[in-house]
Design goal:
With 421 residues, the protein is α+β, with helices and mostly antiparallel strands. The protein has helices at 6-10, 70-85, 90-100, 103-114, 120-138, 148-159, 180-199, 225-240, 245-257, 261-265, 295-302, 326-337, 344-357, 362-369, 386-403, 408-418; strands spanning 21-24, 34-38, 44-51, 57-64, 272-273, 278-281, 289-292.
Length: 421
């Protein structure tokens, strides 16, 4: 039989008849009771088997193969067997702990483990949903006692606004909102947290699995051609009347690129490759990537004024950071243009809607927006995908034409002959 080593574990295969396969530690220096189990699905896990003080056989899973090395698993098995010799029952103790662990405790374990593993922005959003919705409603409940009906009731309570809080009178903090979309996303996050806890042996079942979530009806507001023309007129008028030029330029850049707010506001000159017509992001929501730029967008970004020693394309009015006052500028421009229900994310939706209007596929649009789509964006490539660049050309030209009150063909002709954005 031999000892349990990495090589011995790697060659283990599931039983064709659908039974569990066991390999026990054997040979010189073997640890009695230590073994590896292979499920019919192919999942492999280390375990230790022993008899408790009552003479009952117990089997305790130590961890999955891949998460633990054979040496680490053997050391854990030795520790558990020492507990048994002292009168303990590690398996029973684990079951008792699982039965008593609360939703809040599982969430805290997830947040502690997530540091450095997921993006800071995602972690901040998860933490907010946990503190605002999960803990107040079901944080004290034991996970083992939760049912699907409990999770469905939780979703309904969040949607009904039971955790909503009014906006503070002072300061810039927002408010905790309810609604079906918020409830759906919170339940989705909760399911992922329970699955994490189950995978790590903290709980036995995921009570959120199979829950029918509310439709996530995110706002899909976008600016049509007439609204883009009205916004362009407002931009020119506002600039003449002393509106913040950096804010106006950043709004135009967002429309021409389809980028997220901070992808533009925190964009350093070093990441802009106007010659290859792309932004070489070192970090985004989907990781490092090249983002294709249309000709109008690339030239517009490259034409922004540079300031000595400042790494940002859109510098803050005060201090050394990048510009941050975009919502207020956009609100004033929209008021001037007579536009309602426009947010900064509406600008990104407008880019996508223009691409759809031009007939581009959903996969192409996803590539233009920087979504993670296999086969569309090659993150290891040194130059952007030529098909995506060509698509970005059409989209940015159409938006630039609308903003300037001209036809698309006129914009393309003027830009190529003037050499400016």
């Amino acid at each position: 039989m031999g000892r349990i080593t990495k090589r011995a574990v790697d060659v283990l295969r599931p039983d064709p008849g659908g039974r569990d396969v066991f390999k026990w530690d054997a040979g010189d220096g073997a640890l009695k009771g230590f073994g590896v189990r292979v499920k019919p699905s192919g999942a492999k896990s280390y375990f230790v088997q022993y008899r408790n003080s009552e003479g009952r056989t117990r089997r305790l899973v130590l961890g999955r193969v891949g998460e633990l090395t054979p040496e680490q698993a053997r050391e854990l098995a030795g520790d558990r067997l020492k507990q048994v010799r002292l009168g303990g029952d590690p398996s029973a103790e684990r079951h008792a702990a699982r039965a008593g662990i609360t939703v809040a405790e599982v969430c805290d374990l997830y947040l502690a483990n997530a540091k450095g593993r997921i993006k800071a922005s995602t972690l901040a959003m998860d933490r907010s949903r946990i503190e605002c919705h999960v803990k107040p409603l079901i944080g004290r409940r034991a996970v083992a006692g939760l049912t699907r009906r409990d999770i469905e009731r939780f979703q309904a309570d969040v949607a009904a606004g039971k955790t909503a809080k009014p906006r503070k009178e002072k300061g810039r903090s927002g408010k905790t909102a309810g609604g079906r979309a918020v409830a759906s996303r919170t339940v989705g996050m909760l399911g992922a947290i329970f699955e994490f806890a189950k995978r790590h042996g903290t709980i036995e079942d995921n009570p959120a699995r199979g829950i029918r979530r509310f439709a996530d009806n995110k706002l899909r507001r976008f600016l049509n051609a007439d609204e883009l023309r009205a916004l362009g007129v407002a931009m020119r008028k506002a600039q003449r009347e002393g509106e913040n030029p950096t804010g106006i330029a950043a709004i135009r850049a967002l429309l021409l690129t389809g980028c997220r707010r901070n992808e533009i506001l925190a964009l350093p000159w070093a990441w802009l490759d106007a010659k290859s017509r792309c932004i070489r992001f070192e970090d985004t929501k989907s990781g490092a990537q090249l983002r294709p730029l249309g000709e109008a967008a690339a030239k517009y970004l490259a034409a922004q004024p540079k300031q000595d020693g400042c790494p940002w394309i859109f510098k803050a009015d005060i201090g050394d950071g990048h510009f941050v006052g975009l919502p207020r500028v956009l609100a004033r421009l929209c008021a001037l243009a007579g536009l309602k229900d426009v947010t900064i994310h509406t600008l990104r939706h407008s880019f996508a809607a223009t691409a759809a209007e031009l007939g581009f596929s959903e996969l192409t649009i996803a590539g233009l927006l920087g979504h993670s789509v296999p086969g569309i964006t090659a993150r290891s490539a040194h130059v952007p995908d030529s098909a995506l660049v060509a698509a970005a050309d059409r989209v940015s030209a159409r938006i630039a034409a609308a903003l300037e009150g001209k036809r698309e063909a006129q914009i393309v002709h003027l830009r190529r002959n003037s050499g400016v954005g």
